[in-house]
Specification:
mainly alpha; about 70% helix
């Protein structure tokens, strides 16, 4: 009888996951005509989309040495390589269709994980739809942004890691390494979460047994391989250590731009070495921070709030539909400019800003809950409290590692945006639902179906 009930529960979860995939597919296909009617206007309206399109076209049409072209490009190869074949086959619509397929698969995986880990009858449907209907997950598959490919890969990595710790087989770990490796190749900052997750796993007795098996190490080795191999190749070819040649996708460029934006926003004239495009070292950035502590402290706070509180409804209204869009830099007016308060006041009745304000309040409450629960549950696990399954333990570890990684990435990039958390949002939704299901109890007291 018990086995029959478990089979029925599994079948119900599978049905919910399929419905999530159907909703995601219908949603994206229903807005595809808008892309076509507008001549794919919003295709390049994502972050650095035009730069990425120019690079993509250059790569597709390049002649001569491919490695020379790749190393001279201003952005990391992963940002455009995965769009090259779909672009050749169908142009923007080819890229969008591939990205829609990845988005549908990601929604299905989120629902499957929720159905396994969260003891609610409609957990798969609820978590899956919440993920699918996030503004950025609606807009990004229709734009030329790295998240459109990297985020589904991160969701697949999460699903495979949990499958690996559940079954103990090496194959899911190797596949997980491939997924996160490609995601890191597309967005190198994702690599930071691997060592953070390992440190957190060391702190939790319930996770240490898995550190004595080869699975997680194999995942990490495979995961770091694509970026490391490309870095070695690029460094050998150019004579400059790094994964690109002084473009806009590296740490030095971001720190230089961040320092320049912060100082200009506070009425400070940036020194000459901050006004070029070659990038600066971490040491040089910290020297500038030491000279202008209040200005950079303000930027630190603004970036933290932006990445964890921005509702991102503007990804649809501004970056996709083009409502109130100011290509010259509407974010500067809202956040970084000296007259930001005046800008916000003048838009108090603007529907775009009102909706974003409501979405931001909800987002801020969500992340406050996530941080609180990560501390509460993480502390229980560090103290050796039992957990219902290894999957639950590693979901806590991964969510906490993502929280730290997103925070760090917000301080590294020149302008923090809510989109920086997109690769981690599936883990956050699943973790929050699991924490909510075990509220007023330790995680170890939760019952997982």
């Amino acid at each position: 009888m018990h086995d029959g009930g478990a089979i029925r529960d599994a079948a119900a979860r599978d049905v919910q996951a399929r419905w999530v995939a159907i909703v995601a597919l219908v949603l994206h296909l229903s807005i595809l005509p808008y892309d076509i009617m507008t001549g794919f206007r919003a295709f390049t309206w994502g972050d650095r989309g035009m730069e990425r399109l120019i690079t993509l076209k250059g790569f597709v049409g390049q002649q001569g040495s491919t490695i020379a072209w790749l190393t001279d490009a201003p952005i990391v190869p992963g940002e455009y390589l995965f769009a090259a074949l779909p672009w050749r086959l169908g142009g923007p619509i080819g890229v969008i269709l591939v990205q829609i397929a990845l988005a549908v698969g990601a929604g299905w995986l989120v629902a499957r994980i929720a159905g396994r880990l969260i003891p609610w009858r409609r957990a798969a449907l609820g978590c899956g739809l919440l993920y699918v209907l996030l503004p950025q997950n609606i807009a990004f598959p229709h734009q030329l942004v790295t998240e459109a490919i990297a985020t589904p890969l991160c969701v697949a990595w999460l699903a495979l890691i949990l499958a690996g710790v559940r079954g103990g087989r090496i194959a899911p770990f190797l596949l997980a390494g491939l997924c996160i490796g490609l995601a890191i190749f597309i967005r190198p900052v994702i690599a930071a979460m691997l060592p953070i997750a390992f440190v957190l796993a060391l702190l939790m007795p319930a996770a240490r047994a898995h550190l004595r098996t080869p699975g997680l190490y194999a995942m990490a080795a495979v995961g770091m391989a694509p970026l490391l191999l490309w870095t070695a190749l690029s460094s050998a070819y150019t004579g400059q250590i790094g994964y690109n040649k002084g473009g806009s996708a590296n740490l030095g460029w971001n720190l230089q731009s961040k320092a320049q934006i912060t100082e200009k926003a506070n009425g400070i004239s940036p020194p000459a070495d901050l006004q070029g495009g070659g990038g600066i070292s971490v040491r040089r950035f910290l020297e500038e921070v030491a000279l202008h502590k209040p200005a950079f402290a303000k930027a630190f706070l603004l970036d933290t709030v932006t990445v964890f509180v921005r509702g991102n409804s503007s990804k649809i209204s501004v970056d996709y539909l083009g409502i109130d869009r100011n290509p010259a830099g509407w974010r500067h007016e809202l956040i970084y400019a000296k007259d930001a308060q005046r800008s916000r006041s003048s838009n108090v009745l603007n529907p775009v800003y009102v909706i974003e304000a409501i979405a931001s309040v909800l987002t801020g409450l969500f992340f406050a809950f996530c941080v609180w629960q990560a501390v509460r549950i993480g502390w229980d696990l560090i103290r050796g409290r039992p957990a219902p399954s290894p999957e639950c333990v590693f979901l806590v570890i991964i969510a906490a590692a993502w929280l730290i990684t997103v925070f760090v990435s917000a301080q590294i990039v020149n302008e923090a945006q809510g989109r920086l958390r997109n690769p981690a949002e599936a883990a956050f939704i699943l973790f929050a639902a699991m924490a909510l299901a075990s509220r007023n109890r330790t995680l170890g007291a939760a019952t997982v179906v």
